[in-house]
Amino acid sequence: MDWGNVTAEDLVDALREVDWSSPPRPLSEFFSRFTVPRSYAKWNSRLKCNLYYYRTNYFILIVSVLILGFLWRPLAIVAAILTALSTAFLNDSFAGTFSEKVTRTVRQFSPHLAAKMRPPLTPVIRGRPSARRAIYICGQPRWVFVLTFSAASFFFWFVSCGLLMVSWALAIGLLATILHASFRTPNLKARLNTFREEFRAVWRNYSEL
């Protein structure tokens, strides 16, 4: 496979469609042999080949750097959790499941409070439920929880300087990935792997005809 003719868009599409459940490459292979590319074309081809072949290793590397950054700023972990929850509340299924589990837990300690956390009844128009059903979380409109958690996450991001930390950690992880992919010499296994993936793609296209 000629990686020099592969565009960045093709590489992104391939990484999006490829199976990410494959285990990472062994460290003995990951840190095996490094050489300086002789030309820009060689570097371009090597970079794309290694990004595709060592994709799981690079993903673990970036996540590990981010985790170390979060450990350096513990409040950033709280900010990240609040940001994830405020985003997840926009999903109807998650909002309903979260509200049900919280209400069920509260009912064990205070049934009276749990009764107040029930969502209001759906209005009925001409014998049929209204088509527009608002989402409630613990008896409150969803936007209340989204705004509350978003404001809290913004506060913790600001206090912990977490955004700057995450940006630096992500930049370090990406820089380490690009440096490794640029100087790691593609071995025979990497080339055979790309040929196998190319064959699978061609075979999948023929099977769809």
TrEMBL record:
<comment type="similarity">
    <text>Belongs to the PRA1 family.</text>
</comment>
<dbReference type="InterPro" id="IPR004895">
    <property type="entry name" value="Prenylated_rab_accept_PRA1"/>
</dbReference>
<keyword id="KW-1133">Transmembrane helix</keyword>
<feature type="transmembrane region" description="Helical">
    <location>
        <begin position="165"/>
        <end position="183"/>
    </location>
</feature>
<comment type="function">
    <text>May be involved in both secretory and endocytic intracellular trafficking in the endosomal/prevacuolar compartments.</text>
</comment>
<feature type="transmembrane region" description="Helical">
    <location>
        <begin position="77"/>
        <end position="98"/>
    </location>
</feature>
<keyword id="KW-0812">Transmembrane</keyword>
<keyword id="KW-0813">Transport</keyword>
<dbReference type="GO" id="GO:0016020">
    <property type="term" value="C:membrane"/>
</dbReference>
<dbReference type="Pfam" id="PF03208">
    <property type="entry name" value="PRA1"/>
</dbReference>
<dbReference type="GO" id="GO:0016192">
    <property type="term" value="P:vesicle-mediated transport"/>
</dbReference>
<keyword id="KW-0472">Membrane</keyword>
<feature type="transmembrane region" description="Helical">
    <location>
        <begin position="52"/>
        <end position="71"/>
    </location>
</feature>
<dbReference type="GO" id="GO:0005783">
    <property type="term" value="C:endoplasmic reticulum"/>
</dbReference>
<feature type="transmembrane region" description="Helical">
    <location>
        <begin position="142"/>
        <end position="159"/>
    </location>
</feature>
<protein>
    <recommendedName>
        <fullName>PRA1 family protein</fullName>
    </recommendedName>
</protein>
